[in-house]
Amino acid sequence: MNRLSVPEAIIQPHYAEHGTSSLWKPDIPINTPEDIVGLRKACRLANAILYLSQEMCMPGTTTKSIDRALHDAIIAQGAYPSPLNYSGFPKSICTSVNNVIAHGIPDDRPLQEGDIINVDVTVYLNGYHGDTSATFLVGQVDDNGRSLVECTRESLEKAIQICKPGVPFKEIGKAICEHAHGQGYSVSNELSGHGIGKEFHCYPLILHHINEEEGVMLPGMAFTIEPVLCQGSPMGVMWPDNWTISTVDGGRSAQFEHTVFITENGVEVLT
């Protein structure tokens, strides 16, 4: 599968050439004021690119064409599409349709009336990554699908609301599950949120299900919160491409994601 090209003049992450992954260090990074300036710029660009895709999520559009358009928009801003060749990932964004939990690879399948699609965008701008995603409705979606998407968005918002210095990371999963389970949805534990900054992925790991993860939020930390809610079983199945994860029972899933920064007395949503 051929990768789209990136101009040599654009600053690229260390894995871009050889298809490696993040350099995991044991500690959670505490970002400096300079780091936060860089993170804000990357996150604002990621958010702008994400919502370029919303108007493209129409019946008949292929996810491959969305990938191409967003790739071009990212490099036009002097940034690198972070997923491209990360551990060998072949595309510049992830597109997860209907029962795909995460990491769907853009392809030639046209979107159909009634689909729901998560578009996951990460950009690397001047040495910093910004990561965000949203689930969009394709044409007229049935009430059950719309409710799933709305509850997922609300679950992310409720998780962000509890973030501030001193709060245990495990409270994020509690806030998400209380809202999701209350409306009859399960929460996937296949993937987690993660620290972000100069590396695409770093500590802390942010678990969205009920958990006993150690650690508390401190000023200067930046991480993603990205819950996936499912209509049926939260269990996932890995496809032969070794990237795409779909629900085991074919139930639909939805995901929303923001990058957040812990301030001295609260939280700032960067994307």
Describe this structure in words.
The chain has helices spanning 33-54, 63-76, 143-161, 170-182; strands at residues 80-81, 94-97, 100-102, 116-125, 128-137, 186-187, 193-195, 202-206, 222-225, 228-230, 236-238, 245-247, 253-255, 258-262, 267-269. The protein is an alpha+beta fold and 271 residues long. It is 25% helix and 23% strand. The model has no long low-confidence stretch (mean pLDDT 97). The chain starts with 32 loop residues before the first helix and ends with a strand. It has 4 helices and 15 strands. Strands 1, 2, 4 and 5 form a 4-stranded antiparallel β-sheet that branches. A 3-stranded antiparallel β-sheet has the order 3-12-11, with no helix packed on it. Strands 6-10-13 form a 3-stranded antiparallel β-sheet, with helices on one face.
How helical, in percent, are the residues? 25-40%
Number of strands: 15
Spans with pLDDT under 50 lasting ≥5 residues? none
Radius of gyration: 17 Å
* Alpha-beta content class: alpha+beta
Mean pLDDT comes to 97
Query: What distance lies between the first and last C-alpha atoms, to the nearest angstrom?
Result: 30 Å
Shape: globular
Order of helices and strands: HHEEEEEHHEEEEEEEEEE
Summed up, the helix count is 4
What does the largest sheet look like? 4 strands, antiparallel
Q: What is the strand content?
A: 15-25%
